[in-house]
Amino acid sequence: MTRVAVNGVTGQMGGAVIEAATDSEVVVGFATSDTDGVDGVPVVHPAEAAAALREYDVDVVVDFAVPEGALTVAEACVEVGVSIVVGTTGFDEDGIGRLKDASEEVPLLKATNFSQGIQVLQRLISEAVGTLEDYDLELMETHHNRKVDAPSGTASSILDVIQEERDVEPVYGREGHAPREDDEIGVFARRAGDIRGEHELVLAGNDEVLSLSHRAEDRGVFAAGALDAAAWLVGRDAGWYAFGDVVDA
Ligand SMILES: NC(=O)C1=CN([C@@H]2O[C@H](COP(=O)(O)OP(=O)(O)OC[C@H]3O[C@@H](n4cnc5c(N)ncnc54)[C@H](O)[C@@H]3O)[C@@H](O)[C@H]2O)C=CC1
Ligand SMILES: O=C(O)C1=N[C@H](C(=O)O)C[C@H](O)C1
């Protein structure tokens, strides 16, 4: 069985990964929380990650934490030579640069969303935006009230997909006198309750509206995708991998 360490183990996604790990074994977790165990998994501070990766003979880290924590653990993976699946969102440019550096030393797979449905949605969006060239585009995402980064990592990835097809300028929310420019795309983030994750792109023009959307109904979908990615990643060459590589395999 693949020996997994979970970064952010005391969080919402950490719990979902422990629950979903039936074909792999979660042998240790990292978190800054003041606890030494969760669901029978020992919890170690991220500052001690390198020693724990050696002690627990970890094959791969599955990370759902915060950017600074993900970077600390990614750098521990480099020190020990362990693969890492990065699910944390909200990295700035410097953080992405540090992850890229890590991927030169160990296999690193980063995805802003580990659901297969979002992979397909991104492909559909690419086709729709490329085909309906003159249609207005508006992007919406909705998440639970504890989410700290906005827009979501998935919305940012969808924006990247759109910008490969069309030269659009994101406008993050609108307020006051804000007439729409032809080349803009409105991007909206809503936070409420325990909504697991909803994303929608609206394309409007020519007296019609096309709406492409996805809704995650349980965190288990992300946890299962990340564990599939982890099993796929172990034993590969150092490099930067995407969840699409796993889905297409
Ligand atoms: N790629 C994907 O499919 C998905 C990504 N996410 C992302 O995963 C991340 C975590 O989400 P949740 O579990 O909902 O958050 P959460 O707030 O419930 O959990 C965060 C965890 O990180 C830990 N933490 C805080 N500082 C840390 C540090 N310096 N080092 C290591 N751990 C640290 C906390 O103790 C906690 O265990 C977010 O960035 C979220 O956007 C969430 C769901 C799916
Ligand atoms: O924080 C979350 O919950 C989620 N985060 C990811 C994101 O930022 O896109 C993926 C998913 O939507 C859930």
TrEMBL record:
Ranges for domain Dihydrodipicolinate reductase N-terminal: 3-114
Molecular function GO labels: 4-hydroxy-tetrahydrodipicolinate reductase; NAD binding; NADP binding; oxidoreductase activity, acting on CH or CH2 groups, NAD or NADP as acceptor
Any GO CC annotation of this UniProt entry: cytosol
Active site: H143 (proton donor/acceptor), K147 (proton donor)
Annotated Dihydrodipicolinate reductase C-terminal domain residues: 117-246
InterPro entries for this protein: DapB_C, DapB_N, DapB_N_CS, DHDPR_bac, NAD(P)-bd_dom_sf
Pfam families assigned: DapB_C, DapB_N
Record-listed NADP(+) binding positions: R54
PROSITE patterns given in the database record: DAPB
Alphabetized SUPFAM superfamilies for the sequence: Glyceraldehyde-3-phosphate dehydrogenase-like, C-terminal domain, NAD(P)-binding Rossmann-fold domains
Binding site for (S)-2,3,4,5-tetrahydrodipicolinate: H144, G153, T154
Source domain of life: Archaea
Compartments reported by the entry: Cytoplasm
Keyword annotations from UniProtKB, A to Z: Amino-acid biosynthesis, Cytoplasm, Diaminopimelate biosynthesis, Lysine biosynthesis, NAD, NADP, Oxidoreductase
Documented EC number(s): 1.17.1.8
Binding site for NAD(+): G8, V9, T10, G11, Q12, M13, G87, T88, T89, A111, T112, N113, F114
Reaction catalysed by this enzyme: (S)-2,3,4,5-tetrahydrodipicolinate + NAD(+) + H2O = (2S,4S)-4-hydroxy-2,3,4,5-tetrahydrodipicolinate + NADH + H(+); (S)-2,3,4,5-tetrahydrodipicolinate + NADP(+) + H2O = (2S,4S)-4-hydroxy-2,3,4,5-tetrahydrodipicolinate + NADPH + H(+)
Pathway where it operates: Amino-acid biosynthesis; L-lysine biosynthesis via DAP pathway; (S)-tetrahydrodipicolinate from L-aspartate: step 4/4
Top EC class of this enzyme: oxidoreductase
Entry similarity comment: Belongs to the DapB family.
Function, in words: Catalyzes the conversion of 4-hydroxy-tetrahydrodipicolinate (HTPA) to tetrahydrodipicolinate.
Subunit text: Homotetramer.
Record-linked NCBIfam families: dapB
Name the record gives this protein: 4-hydroxy-tetrahydrodipicolinate reductase
The species this protein was found in: Haloarcula sebkhae
